[in-house]
Write a structure and sequence with these properties.
single chain; alpha/beta; Rossmann fold; 11 strands
Length: about 325
């Protein structure tokens, strides 16, 4: 069974309430209908209910209009309280909630009216993530929110039978050594929680075990040291070139003493440029299914969509968001 099909089945075991704020996009409406019909999640659309209810495919789906909702005034006061130290007025809070559906979506999640958000089909990543970072913020004990992709590579035995977690490919431009270490630990946790498999985390570089000397290499070397000390429960190693990380034959030559080299299934890129380029190369040249950019480290799951996403992409990301929300609840109950 393909990765995303397994995730959909997992999502159906305990449906969560996921908000799709971009009701102005036809792909979102089509995806909402499929998600509802397949019982993957309970969907909340934000928009004009008079317009949306004319679409018969949306029958049974919850629609909230911030202009007419009896929740709005309470949310105005809450948003003002949360952001007044940053200079926000009540009128500015009201305008944001009515005109920017992402802010209203975040308030729904903060008030436990929903469990997660998927947006970005027709808005930039900053439009999606800025309100979430301002209002939802990070998990307790987590300093950094990072972006990742699930990469499902067909006809491939590397990684977890062709499945990889790539990070950070969507959020942190040029992470420091400490931030790379944090991304490594968070990614290992994500991989383990989602798949129930052992994560093997490789911090990537153009160098393997000091085969090259450069400040960029040193950044990854230090990140590896910090990560190994901070997350001793995980297999983490670096600096590794990509072939050393995933190809057993190369690993035997270049990093024979590494517990990660040759079997890495979590790939940590040194910066956003390499991460973004890397995932798109694998997606376009190897025909991989790429799900993301997803976020990890957020108090409640908020995930971004590519503006070039398909309806199937949206359905897949919603299913992943449901599973993230399920894991959140499980962790809170521990």
């Amino acid at each position: 069974m393909k990765f995303i099909e397994r995730i959909k089945e997992e999502a159906k075991k305990k449906k969560m309430r996921i908000i799709l704020p971009e009701s102005m996009d036809e792909r979102i409406l089509e995806a909402a209908s499929i998600i509802y019909q397949e019982k993957i999640a309970d969907i909340i659309l934000i928009g004009d209910e008079k317009v949306l209810k004319t679409n018969k495919k949306l029958s049974g789906i919850t629609i909230i209009n911030p202009i007419t909702s009896n929740l709005t005034e309470n949310y105005v006061n809450q948003l003002y309280d949360l952001r007044r130290e940053k200079g926000m007025t009540k009128e500015e809070a009201r305008t944001l909630l009515i005109e920017d559906y992402m802010y209203f979506a975040c308030m729904l999640v903060l008030n436990h009216q929903a469990d997660g958000i998927v947006s970005g089909a027709c808005h930039s990543s900053s439009n999606t993530l800025r309100p979430a970072l301002q209002l939802i913020k990070t998990l307790p004990g987590t300093k950094l929110v990072s972006g990742f992709f699930w990469m499902d590579v067909p006809n491939n035995n590397y990684g977890e039978n062709g499945l990889f977690l790539f990070a950070d490919c969507g959020l942190n431009q040029n992470p420091t050594s400490s931030e790379l270490a944090e991304i490594s630990g968070t990614s290992a946790k994500t991989f383990e929680e989602f798949l129930g498999k052992v994560p093997y985390v490789a911090l990537l570089s153009h160098s393997t075990k000091r085969s090259a000397r450069h400040e960029n290499v040193e950044k990854v070397v230090l990140a590896t040291k910090i990560a190994q000390e901070k997350y001793p429960q995980y297999y983490i190693d670096g600096e590794l070139q990509l072939d050393s990380a995933i190809v057993p034959e190369v690993a035997k030559m270049k990093a024979p003493d590494s517990k990660v080299a040759g079997k890495a299934n979590v790939l940590i890129f040194p910066d956003l440029d390499s991460g973004n380029i890397g995932y798109k190369l694998v997606q376009r040249l190897a025909g991989a299914e790429a799900y993301g950019p997803l976020t990890q480290g957020m108090r409640y799951p908020v995930n971004d969509l590519s503006r070039g996403c398909s309806v199937d992409d949206i359905v897949g990301v919603v299913a992943i968001t449901v599973v993230q929300a399920q894991k959140n609840i499980q962790n809170q109950e521990k």
